[in-house]
Structures are given as C-alpha cells and as structure tokens.
Amino acid sequence: MAITENPRIAKPSAIEEDEQGQLVARKGISPEVVEELSKVKGEPDWMREKRRRSAEIYERKPVPTWGVDLSGLDLDELVLYSPPTAGRYDSWDDVPTEMKETYEALGIPQAEREHLAGVVGVWRQEPVYEGLKKEYADLGILFCSMDTAVTEYPDLVEPYFMTKCVPPQDNKFSALHGAVWSGGSFLYVPKGVKVDLPLQAYFRMEGAGEGTFEHTLIIADEGSEVNYIEGCTAQTYSVNSMHSAVVEIFVKEGAKARYTTVQNWSKDVYNLNTKRAMVDAEGTVEWVGGSMGAKFVMLYPGSFLMGEGARADHLNVGVASGNVWKDTGAKVMHLAPNTTSNILAKSISMDGGVMGYRGLVRMGHNSQGSKARVQCDGLMMDPESRSDTWPDIQIQNPHVTVAHEAVVGKISDEQLFYLQSRGLSEEEAASMIVNGFIEPVTKELPMEYAVELNRLIQLEMEGSVG
User: Residue 254 contacts by C-beta under 8 Å, 6 or more apart in sequence?
Assistant: First the structure.
C-alpha cells in the first residue's frame, strides 16, 4: 500500500524534462533550483532556510586542491535533483516493476525477510520504500527516509541535522549537500533498546550526468545498540556522475552504533562524501566499510570522542584498479580522558590504480589516558599501481599512547610460487593471498556482505596479476 502518492507535478521554471520524459532540475546549482527542490518536497521553513544558507556557503568555498584531481568535475553540467515520479511504499509488491526487479536482483526484499529489522530503499535520489518490522516499531525505533523524518519528526531532526557534526561550512561538498540533499535515511533508537537485527538502507543511482546527495542521520540514545548497513550502486554511463552524501551519527552515553557500508560504484562516479560521528561518554562507534569502483574518491570518516571512555573503531578496505584514484582514510579526535581508537585501513591497487591513506589522529589537551592505534596496509598487484600514506598525528597532551604502522608492498613472488606448487593457478593463488590480506575487515562484515565483497574483488582482479 502506498504511504504517500506523488502525482506528476506541473513543470515550473527550475524543472525540466529530459529526453526520457523524466522530470529533472536544470543543470547546476542556483537559488531557483534550491527553492524549487524544497517546494516540491513540501519542506518546513527551517529546512528551506538551511538549504538557502548552505547554498550561500557553497558559493564562497573553494574546490579542494589536495587529494584527487577534481579538474574534470564540472558541477554546472550535472543535474543535481530529479523530482519523484513514484510514491513511497510499505510493501515491495506495490513498488513499480522496474525498481522492484532491480532490488530483487540485489536480494534486498529477501534479505529484509530473513536477516533485517527494516529497510529503506532510495531510487534516483528519492525514497520509494520504507519498511520496519512491527516488533521493532513497538520498541519505539524510528526508521524511515530522511524526507519523511523532516516532516514527521522535526523535533528530533532539526537539532541534529547539519549543526555540530557536519556543518555546511565544513567543506565545499558538504555545503553543496546541505543545499540540494535528497533521499537518505533516518534512524532513532530509544534509550536502552538493543536492536538484534541490522537495519539497512539501499541507494541506487540511476541516470547519466547526475548528482546524488543522500543524507543519513543516526541517533543511538543512551545505552542503546544498533547495527546499520548501507549499500550503494550505480549504472555505468559514458559521462561523469557525482555522489556526495553526508552521514551524521550521534552515539549517546553508553550506546553502541555500527555503521557498515559496501559501495560498488560504476567507474564514472566522483564519490565525495563526508561522514562523521560524535560519541559521548562510554559510547562506541564502529565504521566498517568496503569501497569498490568509482572514478575518484575522497572519503575520511571521522569520530569525535566527546566523553570519557568513548571509543571509535575504523576498519576499511578499498580497491583501485585501472584509472581509479582513491584518497581515503580516517580522522579521530580524542577530546576527553581515557578514550580509545583503532584504525585499520587495507588497500589494494592494480592495473595502474592509485590508493592513498590520509589520516588524522589528534590527542586534545584533555585526552590524558587515551590510546590510539593506526595500521595502514597497502598491497600492490603490479609495478604500474601506486599506494601512498599521509598520516597526521597531533599530540597536545603528553599522557597518551599512540602507535602507528604503515606497510606497503607488492604481492609476494614466494607466496605465489608456493601456492602454485600446490596446484593452484596464478590467479587462484593471488586471490587466496588477497582474501587473507583483507580478512581482518571482511570478518567484521555480515556474512552476505563479506561474500559479496570477496566476489567483487575477484571480478576486479581478473587478469590483474603481473
């Protein structure tokens, strides 16, 4: 049954039709596009004002000149918003056929029935499916699209949305996001509630030359526990597209939140995200991720450890093959006593791909008794590929412990020879070595995601040993 129906709207000045008859905003960002976007969504005044201020900040902020090469990204040539043509549904049977077939091919409905507490599905920047099992809704858990949350739960959303965690002035792309965000998911877990099954959001980019700007807001209240999973894919086109999401996670005192993502972008996507968590006393945030595909990536999930005893764990594996260039890493700010962080970054580069780790650990003035460990491991599959590390460790309190280790190397000829002497082909031997290399990350993924990540890496590796 449809929750809300979105009839085809009249075509205002900032909205046009593309060649397929799909309603889209005019290319580029302008006050008219931002205003029309907010009007189409029926947003309250406070959100419209946030968008307006973000657009002003975007105009003033420069494009970053460090990290990946962004000279080929022309934001004026991108469609930044596509108005909805479908409704929002709480049954997979009612989802339009094209969308439903894609989600079914990805296994999302079956996973919801068997392994998940709830699912939010976003298609071409707009939510089309929202589902939360009754037993979890009865516990007071809120899980829906971000668009729904803005209108139905403003008292929860407004104090958190792009205020202290990821403000629009953080960087040019966070400002752009604040102006034209659409889609994404909202999750609130009440005090003391421990969710025993994961909740999942799935974002699908459709359309050439578009930007997508999903916003994820997670609030784990005091003493709660939750595991949130996010998946992203895109079709392949011959023109550039852009993904610039924002993730904001608030972990209250004694709570625990795990954010898991496996992204498999087509290799025409600029993936430029801002992800951050604020963790109160005795709280824990866990970031577990796998990054596949995309053309250029800049991604540095950050954790602000605000209260005594707070903890952050960052585990990530990234793969760059061919012309892919990824500049990734993690940032942890220890701002209270006896806080702990652990960063493990695994990267694989092949066929001339470039992987970079750019990390920051800051021990603040009030961080006495805190501990941090950083480990960056890079594996290069051939002489043409590259792996770089740029660690930044800032210590403002002498009573802390920080350890850093970085190892970059090529796949071992001795290991390949040994495995081949046991009857494996060169590709099978290389796959076994790679699986062992990334195992510390994949063992933290849900089973189906670990299998999927291994499969994607195998596909990337075909013919890449040399």
Answer: 222, 223, 281, 282, 283
